[in-house]
């Protein structure tokens, strides 16, 4: 059971906008930054969004993050076939005193 | 360009010790402010933080694994290592090393990962 809850799957067609939710609690998302990672098949996770809504250099502005209370979301606009991947949210947890991850959402581009 | 590379046995027998090393290149482990983590991913599952270390040797571990885990650092070789004792089949996973920040879920550079299978 992951500390953060994500839908197991999401899908969209090329060009569409999709959102992936991440639900947590007062000990993690509500009081700490949220991060998002993209994991393409057979590869290591890639740093995608940091501090709730910031993009590292090289990440397209089609990817955006937001946070409100104990929840966060990742939005991908102008969906492309290469966006097909697993997406993980993460946050520091004050009770665990360590980072926690969501269970991951598998995004399919139809 | 920061790079991390895991190395170690891909097969470990039950009840034995899993040992992995992460070699860091492109940046010194002594660079202040960064933590050096081990994270694992069970087959077809999500990510689980194992623990991290700073170049000073200060560590923090996931409470669920704390009794079996030791993370150490060798700054002269720019490496850090993981030891997980008394492994079972439940420890079969891809193990990643990653660079992060203190008290954060920030991991900006990852190794490619190494699959460790626990089996007799």
Q: Brief overview, please?
A:
The complex is a heterodimer of chains A (110) and B (120). Chain A is mostly beta strands and 110 residues long. Helix content of chain A is 0%, strand content 45%.
Structure overview:
The complex is a heterodimer of chains A (110) and B (120). Chain A has strands spanning 9-12, 18-23, 34-39, 46-49, 63-68, 71-76, 85-93, 98-101, 105-109. Chain A is mainly beta and 110 residues long. In chain A, strands 1, 3, 4, 7, 8 and 9 form a 6-stranded mixed sheet that branches. Chain A has a 3-stranded antiparallel sheet with strand order 2-6-5, with no helix packed on it. Chain B is mainly β. Chain B is built from no helices and 11 strands. In chain B, the strands form 2 sheets. In chain B, strands 2, 4, 5, 6, 9, 10 and 11 form a 7-stranded mixed sheet that branches. A 4-stranded antiparallel sheet of chain B has the order 1-3-8-7, with no helix packed on it. Chain B is globular and about 40 Å long.
Observed structural traits:
heterodimer; A: 110 residues; mainly beta; 6-stranded mixed sheet; 3-stranded antiparallel sheet; 45% strand; B: 120 residues; 4-stranded antiparallel sheet; globular
**Average pLDDT for all residues of chain A:** 96
The low-confidence parts of chain B are none
How many DSSP helices of chain B?
0
Binned strand content of chain A: over 45%
Work out the number of β strands of chain B: 11
Helix share, percent of chain B: under 10%
Broad shape of chain A: globular
Distance between the termini of chain B: 39 Å
Mean pLDDT of chain B: 96
Quote the beta fraction of chain B: over 45%
Give me the count of strands of chain A: 9
Q: Which consecutive residue ranges of chain A, at least 5 long each, have pLDDT under 50? A: none
Which radius of gyration of chain B do the C-alpha atoms yield?
A: 13 Å
Largest interface: A-B, 26 and 23 residues
Q: Using the alpha-carbon principal axes, give the shape of chain B.
A: globular
Structural class of the helix and strand makeup of chain A? mainly beta
Order of helices and strands of chain A: EEEEEEEEE
Please describe the biggest sheet of chain B, giving its number of strands, its sense, and whether it closes into a barrel: 7 strands, mixed
Q: What is Rg of chain A?
A: 13 Å
């Amino acid at each position: 059971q992951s500390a953060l809850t994500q839908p197991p799957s999401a899908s969209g067609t090329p060009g569409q906008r999709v959102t992936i939710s991440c639900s947590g609690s007062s000990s993690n998302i509500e009081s700490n930054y949220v991060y998002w990672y993209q994991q393409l098949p057979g590869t290591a996770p890639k740093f995608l969004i940091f501090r709730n809504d910031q993009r590292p250099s090289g990440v397209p502005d089609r990817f955006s993050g937001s946070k409100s209370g104990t929840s966060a979301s990742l939005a991908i606009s102008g969906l492309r076939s290469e966006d097909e991947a697993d997406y993980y949210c993460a946050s520091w947890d004050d009770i665990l005193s360590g980072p926690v991850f969501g269970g991951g959402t598998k995004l399919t581009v139809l | 360009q920061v790079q991390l590379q895991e190395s170690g046995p891909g097969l470990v027998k039950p009840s034995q010790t899993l040992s992995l090393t992460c070699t860091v290149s492109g940046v010194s482990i002594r660079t202040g402010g960064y933590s050096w983590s081990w994270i694992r991913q069970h087959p077809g599952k999500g990510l689980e933080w194992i623990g991290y270390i700073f170049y000073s040797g200060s560590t923090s571990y996931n409470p669920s694994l704390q009794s079996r885990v030791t993370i150490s650092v060798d700054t002269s070789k720019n490496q850090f290592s993981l030891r997980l004792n008394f492994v079972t089949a439940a420890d079969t996973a891809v193990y990643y090393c990653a660079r992060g920040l203190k008290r954060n879920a920030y991991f900006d550079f990852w190794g490619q990962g190494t699959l460790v299978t626990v089996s007799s």
